[in-house]
From TrEMBL:
Name of protein: TetR family transcriptional regulator
Region of interest (Disordered), ranges: 1-51
Native source species: Embleya scabrispora
Record's keyword annotation contains Membrane: no
Record keyword Transcription regulation present: yes
Listed transmembrane segments: none
DNA-binding region ranges: 77-96
């Protein structure tokens, strides 16, 4: 705990220093690049890390994704990231304003993975279904990352692409602009909520998942029917009904409902 608190203090101090340097750079009103800008640009292009790789936004994001995947979101500190990259931790601030800015880039990275190879077809329902499944699959590939990224608005290129694709499919179905925006919100929030739930489950320790799964078969079977008559009525089907993922059923119910509203 003390080590984590120390790392957080170091990150906050480094972020403050980086912010102050950025303000000093912005105060130059001559229209000419400042020395800080020139040096930062040169370092971005030319200075390899101790491991021999050249830093870039993509390299930092991919390293951060691995770091969170192996150790959880609490591992995302500039100190640990610098150690994993083989560079001075403050080098990260040449690419990201702070750790939250980095987290938004990580969230956008997940969206980019989701869209890789995606080509919507003429059937808007089938295309939205595939998009929803891709979102879920991406969350399950990176469950620990998805837990902290799913609720964020990245304000970046891949998110723009995803919104453009989803809204355009609903417009092509015949929805008005107002309804297309509304139903895209319904669609993507439903997909993200269920995908994040599955990611949270996938991130649990295996023994915890197994204990939770067994409870539907063991604990619920022992409940007295007099106290829980509805559970008693479905008892033979409850374990099967609660096992596995309901994601595709939820997605199909939503899309069927939308199709009836065109």
């Amino acid at each position: 705990m003390a080590g984590a608190a120390s790392e957080e203090r170091m990150d906050r101090t480094a972020e403050t220093n980086a912010s102050n340097r950025a303000k000093q750079t912005q105060s130059n009103t001559t229209g000419q690049p400042t020395r800080t800008n020139r040096v930062a640009g040169e370092r971005r292009r030319r200075r390899p890390t101790k491991s021999g790789s050249i830093l870039s936004e993509d390299v930092i994001v991919e390293c951060a994704v691995r770091l969170i995947g192996h150790h959880g979101a609490e591992a995302l500190t500039v100190r640990r990231l610098g150690a994993a990259l083989g560079c001075d931790p403050t080098a990260v601030y040449r690419y990201f304003r702070n750790t939250d800015d980095l987290l938004l880039a990580i969230a956008d990275f997940l969206i980019g993975e989701t869209l890789t190879g995606y080509r919507p077809g003429p059937d808007w329902v089938a295309s939205l279904r595939e998009l929803g499944l891709r979102v879920r699959d991406g969350h399950l590939r990176h469950p620990r990352v998805a837990i902290v990224a799913a609720a964020r608005v990245t304000r970046r290129h891949n998110e723009f692409r995803a919104v453009e694709l989803g809204v355009s499919l609903l417009l092509s179905a015949g929805f008005s602009p107002a309804d297309a925006a509304r139903y895209y919100h319904v669609f993507i929030d439903t997909v993200l909520a269920h995908a994040a739930l599955e990611a949270s489950y996938a991130a649990l320790a295996p023994e915890v998942r197994e204990a939770d799964d067994r409870s539907w078969e063991e604990t619920y079977r022992m409940l007295p029917a007099a106290d829980y008559p509805a559970i008693g009525a479905v008892r033979p089907h409850l374990a099967a009904g609660m096992s596995g993922s309901p994601f595709e059923d939820v997605l199909d119910l939503l899309l069927e409902s939308l199709a009836r509203r065109v």
